[in-house]
Amino acid sequence: xxxxxxxxxxxxxxxxxxxxxxxxxxxxxxxxxxxxxxxxxxxxxxxxxxxxxxxxxxxxxxxxxxxxxxxxxxxxxxxxxxxxxxxxxxxxxxxxxxxxxxxxxxxxxxxxxxxxxxxxxxxxxxxxxxxxxxxxxxxxxxxxxxxxxxxxxxxxxxxxxxxxxxxxxxxxxxxxxxxxxxxxxxxxxxxxxxxxxxxxxxxxxxxxxxxxxxxxxxxxxxxxxxxxxxxxxxxxxxxxxxxxxxxxxxxxxxxxxxxxxxxxxxxxxxxxxxxxxxxxxxxxxxxxxxxxxxxxxxxxxxxxxxx
Length: 307
Ligand SMILES: [Zn+2]
Description:
By secondary structure, the protein is an alpha+beta fold. The protein is built from nine helices and eleven strands.
């Protein structure tokens, strides 16, 4: 199962009522758009979050894969909408309590990818129609949706006499959220296991900075974080460095980075005193492999806090 975010605005009402999303193949000048072409990636069973004017208002499941088809209707008589485009049929579940992205920005922004993020750093939705939504961001959104919507459902159900619970839109939301979350977490767990197993031997099972080899403190630390990876990069054993917990956190937070040659760069914010306490100094050069280069350079460019 993959997840996506559809940015709908004024088309939401009609698309929700008829249960579909649709995008033209190209704009009026004949140019394709990444956010329209992404429709082709949608498969039956995929999960879609619906974003309308600042809020996530619904969650749906694709009941078909992407098909090339005419838009079911064209109420605004839009010229581009008269030609066949990318169509996906959906089973839409509207939320009782919409999720305002601005108010949840603190939780969401660390999970936004550098590329093809549905939201800007200030929480505003980006231009475009369909965006990918990686597993960690999707799990966070599912948790926020459940927190806001399920408590209300349970309270209402408690108030109903046993046997009178009617099959409503809300009754179907709970299993949908729970199943999606569980499936995404399983997918992450399997990928993490593969990544760890492949990368540990490349670093002789020890922290490449300090040599600590106690397994419990060793962390297979990605250079390019999961949220920014392609499917292949997530399990590429060269996308990471084996570090002890202390050095791993410095690397993840961008307080240290390594250049293409493996030479360490230490953020100004770290005092000389802390260098000593962490056992680091500017002469450190890690034994990076050629295949690590693109990843550690990406990390230095985007995550090192001293630009
Ligand atoms: Zn270490």
